[in-house]
Design brief:
mainly beta; 7-stranded antiparallel beta sheet
Length: 160
């Protein structure tokens, strides 16, 4: 009888290469000018294989199918009408249709001086080659208040 055994449960090249995953976040208090459409700047990348940080998003280097998710915390100091639109853009162009979210309404500022709202969305997208994903915010608010981005994150994970 032998004191050892050979386990063939894993292939010789185990562990397999992990799928591409990238995560960036911004935790600064960022003014959000009215009537503008801006890419959220991300200064804190946590990237694994197959991606680079552009400062305004994540660039995936290979064709594939990806899960793209953003989370955004916005503040509005009223009174006035708030109107925020958020989406994921690819290569700095138009928003991916399924990625858009919008919050609009009236805020009196009477019960609380600041309104905080969170927008998030997850989409699945197929890309044919290197593609940059960015979070784009549009601010069409009106009134005496001011708007800010408090926190933002963007996560991209390759599925296939």
């Amino acid at each position: 009888m032998s004191d050892s055994f050979e386990c063939r449960a894993f292939p010789p090249n185990f562990p397999p290469q992990l799928p591409m995953h990238g995560f960036v976040f911004a935790d600064a208090d960022l003014p959000l000018p009215r009537g503008t459409r801006i890419n959220v700047p991300f200064a804190n990348p946590l990237l694994l294989s197959g991606a680079t940080s552009t400062g305004a998003g994540i660039t995936v280097l290979e064709a594939g199918i990806y899960r793209v998710q953003y989370d955004l915390t916005l503040t509005f100091d009223g009174p006035g009408n708030y109107d925020f639109g958020v989406g994921i853009s690819t290569n700095g162009l138009t928003n991916l249709t399924a990625s858009t979210a919008r919050r609009a309404g009236e805020f009196s500022g009477v019960t609380s001086p600041t309104m905080v709202d969170q927008l998030n969305k997850t989409v699945i997208v197929q890309v044919a080659g290197p593609t940059t994903f960015s979070v784009v915010v549009t601010n069409n608010s009106t009134g005496a208040g001011s708007e800010r981005i408090q926190l933002a994150s963007l996560s991209v994970t390759q599925i296939v």
